[in-house]
Write a structure and sequence with these properties.
Helix content of chain B: 10-25%
Order of helices and strands of chain A: EHHEEEEEHEEHHEEEE
Order of helices and strands of chain B: HEEEEHEEEHHEEEEEEH
Strand content of chain A: 25-35%
Largest sheet of chain A: 7 strands, antiparallel
Shape of chain B: globular
Strand order of the largest sheet of chain A: 1-2-12-4-10-8-7
Radius of gyration of chain A: 16 Å
Number of domains of chain A: 1
Strand order of the largest sheet of chain B: 1-13-3-11-6-5
Strand content of chain B: 15-25%
Largest interface: A-B, 50 and 52 residues
Structural class of chain B: alpha+beta
Number of strands of chain A: 12
Distance between the termini of chain B: 52 Å
Structural class of chain A: alpha+beta
Distance between the termini of chain A: 28 Å
Number of helices of chain A: 5
Oligomer: heterodimer
Number of domains of chain B: 1
């Protein structure tokens, strides 16, 4: 389920370098806890807006014409000199080809390591009582099922607006976010791509500030 | 020896095993013929598998729950790229994101679990002889394996039949032996070549501490894919890989009362999930 677009002018919300000379071809608000999928044409840019602040957006991307070519966190990291994503990061597939490029980012950095929450992993992280809770993998499976994708197609994903530092001794974890209401990240499709989003429903850690909120997704064409 | 006739070709083929040099990489039959260092408390007669995987090569094994699998870098140049799948339902497989997130730790060593996407322990790292430290981890769960495209760029070739095989190509072949395809290949873990991460999130290749071994305990019946090739962040301009010595012997999955069972609450719940699954699925029979 999605709700009607917010009334604010989308071109006033996307980062100015994306808004310049662009036309809006899609504008939608994804309700808290919901999946969202869309094919983004080569050259178009998807901007995700953290409407309420510190809302993790779990994200997978596939070549729209050959979904075996899907986002690969290791290949993305091999192609840059940091474990985080920000402007300039190239999202690579498992054969090392570019799928999308981060072209604007007002948040600053995003997670590549933490993956998606699932009902099953929640039982390990928080206790067996959390198995009944909704989770990102459920959203990925639901969204993917509309495009012929299944469990085999799910791999380690991006978490926009989520803060996962790695300490020098390797300790890592999801900690309080560095995002805020209205911050946005924009990714340009390098070829026709299918995007799966889970607007993260997690309530057991700070990835959504313990309060899942909507995200706005705006597709622009230069 | 002529190979112009079927009889000559057969005789020629049959001569090759006898003529091969003893040190060439191979699977040993029986495994008890293994002449390398045995794991503590394990006798040669206990071994059910013994193999040397050559540099640039791969292998795959199906192992029963409880099986111990030791992978040894005998030269200090080895790098073991590993994927594990639930043998009875291979859509359940290693999930490195859950593995590092659930255990609050990116640098894997003895005591850590390899977790599936179904909240279960696939395997436990029960032994690690590499010289790990916080500043110098010797294993890597973040940077995955190498690709054909990138090995071509770095070494001029990434073909499995060339001098610098790409890990994903090797995995694709190993997976195919089990009816699995590239769709079934998630991010992998590597052993014996480490990468540290700075406070600012910058990776630095740490590399090997020299010859070392890791031993896994299978917590479920597993398909194990193992590739022997250079780490994707290995900065050396020449392709560097070494042989991997693999031995396996029977054992039991982690059970209540074992020190590993209650070492962490996250691990305990993973063992609980694996144990319940073995019981319901019949894998414990």
């Amino acid at each position: 389920m999605t709700v009607a677009p917010a009334t604010a002018d989308p071109l006033a919300i996307v980062p100015p370098e994306v808004a310049a000379d662009a036309v809006v071809i899609h504008d939608e608000t994804v309700a808290a806890r919901n999946p969202w999928t869309r094919v983004i044409a080569a050259g178009d840019t998807l901007t995700m807006v953290d409407v309420g602040g510190n809302q993790a957006v779990d994200f997978l991307v596939y070549d729209a014409h050959d979904t075996e070519l899907r986002y690969s966190a290791p290949d993305t990291l091999q192609g840059q000199d940091t474990i985080y994503l920000t402007t300039g990061s190239v999202l690579r597939d498992a054969e090392h080809g570019p799928l999308m490029t981060v072209v604007a980012d007002t948040c600053g950095r995003h997670d590549t390591l933490g993956g998606a929450c699932s009902k099953e992993s929640n039982t390990l992280r928080y206790g067996h009582h959390t198995r009944a809770q909704h989770a990102c993998v459920e959203n990925f499976l639901l969204g993917g099922s509309r495009h012929g994708l299944g469990k085999r197609d799910l791999v380690s994903n991006i978490n926009w607006f989520m803060n996962v530092p790695v300490d020098p001794d390797g300790a890592l974890g999801i900690v309080d976010g560095i995002s805020a209401p209205g911050l946005a990240v924009s990714v340009r499709a390098e070829r026709d791509v299918l995007v799966l989003i889970s607007n993260c429903p997690q309530i057991n850690n700070p990835c959504n500030g313990f309060d899942p909120t909507p995200v706005r997704v705006i597709v622009t064409r230069a | 020896m002529t190979t112009a006739t079927t009889a000559g070709a057969k005789a020629h083929a049959r001569e090759q095993e006898r003529a091969a040099a003893a040190e060439l990489p191979r699977v040993l039959h029986p495994a008890s013929a293994y002449a390398g260092d045995l794991p503590p408390g394990v006798s040669a007669g206990d071994l059910v598998w013994a193999e040397t995987v050559p540099p640039g090569g791969y292998t795959s094994l199906v192992v029963a729950a409880g099986t111990r699998l030791r992978v040894r870098d005998t030269t200090g140049n080895g790098c073991a790229h590993l994927l594990v799948f639930h043998a009875d339902q291979p859509t359940e497989r290693l999930n490195v994101a859950d593995t590092v997130k659930v255990q609050w730790q990116a640098f894997l060593t003895a005591g850590h679990l390899l977790l599936s996407d179904q909240g279960r322990a696939l395997a436990t790292i029960v032994e690690d002889t590499a010289d790990n430290s916080a500043a110098a981890p010797r294993h890597d769960a973040l940077f995955g394996t190498s690709t054909l495209a990138r090995n071509v760029e770095r070494y001029g070739s990434g073909d499995v039949f060339g001098p610098s095989p790409a890990g994903r190509e090797l995995f694709a072949l190993a997976a195919a032996k089990h009816g699995l395809t590239r769709r079934d290949l998630p991010p992998s873990v590597t052993f014996f070549e480490g990468v540290s991460v700075s406070d600012a999130g910058r990776p630095a290749f740490v590399g090997s501490s020299g010859p070392a071994s890791i031993t896994l305990a299978a917590e479920l019946p597993l398909i194990v894919l193992l590739a022997s090739t250079a780490h994707p962040l290995d900065p050396r301009p020449e392709f560097t890989a070494g042989p991997l010595d693999v031995v396996a012997w029977p054992g039991a999955p982690t059970a209540p009362g074992d020190p590993a069972w209650g070492a962490t609450p996250e691990g305990r719940r993973a063992y609980e999930n694996s144990t319940a699954h073995r019981r319901t699925s019949g894998a414990d029979r």
